[in-house]
């Protein structure tokens, strides 16, 4: 089945598909709502879905089809290959993604791939996904120290939570042991902490240090 709001484009895709081996077109829709209704009526194996359509766009139509009619797979066929189009469509449940410069062989291959349980992605989309996966993750936002403790006091608290002694903290921060003790006294006074065990729990609770074995993903 084909879903595209532009009549000329929709009819052209239907005509092209009719010439391809192993493909039978059972219906065509002009927007997302009509696409969902036709899937309910015709139960096609695959929908070639445009994204930018009135009333109900392709991503929302894909989400509804995959939720209500899981026997129908969706391959996006669109002009757009930007992240704002690609990733919402894949998250909605599309198993394939092609741009409208795809040839007939590429469309057939994508349809066969999704019917066999694979992803029907064009080489361009595969490259974009790999690029996205290889991009470094954004650094976590800095945590504002609670209870009025300073950034340096929070740093000392984090090192306490890591099990460092006052002498080791002093060496790590290139300050004297007396200065470390002053920071500890200040942060204990501000937070009401009684001992280092409480300090460790406080640091974990307020996100000042990652618990052992945790990982940022």
Automatic annotation (TrEMBL):
Residues 1-115 form the Response regulatory domain. InterPro entries: CheY-like_superfamily (IPR011006), NreC/VraR/RcsB-like_REC (IPR058245), Sig_transdc_resp-reg_C-effctor (IPR016032), Sig_transdc_resp-reg_receiver (IPR001789), Tscrpt_reg_LuxR_C (IPR000792), WalR-like (IPR039420). It holds the Pfam family GerE. The modification 4-aspartylphosphate is found at residue 50. It comes from the Bacteria. Keywords: DNA-binding, Phosphoprotein, Transcription, Transcription regulation. CDD domains: LuxR_C_like, REC_NarL-like. Residues 142-207 form the HTH luxR-type domain. This is Response regulator.
């Amino acid at each position: 089945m084909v879903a595209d709001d532009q009549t000329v484009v929709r009819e052209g895709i239907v005509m092209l598909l009719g010439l391809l081996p192993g493909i039978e077109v059972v219906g065509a829709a002009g927007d997302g709502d009509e696409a969902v209704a036709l899937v309910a009526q015709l139960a096609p194996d695959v929908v070639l879905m445009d994204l930018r359509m009135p009333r109900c766009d392709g991503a929302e139509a894909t989400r509804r089809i995959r939720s209500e009619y899981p026997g129908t797979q969706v391959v996006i066929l669109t002009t757009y290959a930007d992240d704002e189009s690609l990733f919402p469509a894949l998250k909605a449940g599309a198993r394939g993604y092609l741009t409208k410069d795809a040839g007939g062989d590429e469309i057939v291959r994508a349809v066969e791939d999704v019917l066999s349980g694979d992803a029907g992605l064009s080489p361009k989309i595969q490259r974009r996904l790999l690029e996205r996966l290889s991009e470094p993750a954004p650094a976590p936002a800095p945590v504002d120290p609670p209870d009025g403790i300073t950034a340096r006091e929070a740093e000392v608290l984090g090192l306490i939570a890591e099990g460092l002694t006052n002498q080791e903290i002093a060496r790590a921060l290139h300050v004297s042991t007396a200065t470390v003790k002053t920071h500890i006294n200040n942060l204990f006074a501000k937070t009401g902490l009684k001992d280092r065990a409480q300090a460790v729990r406080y640091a974990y609770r307020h996100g000042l240090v990652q618990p052992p074995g945790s990982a940022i993903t």
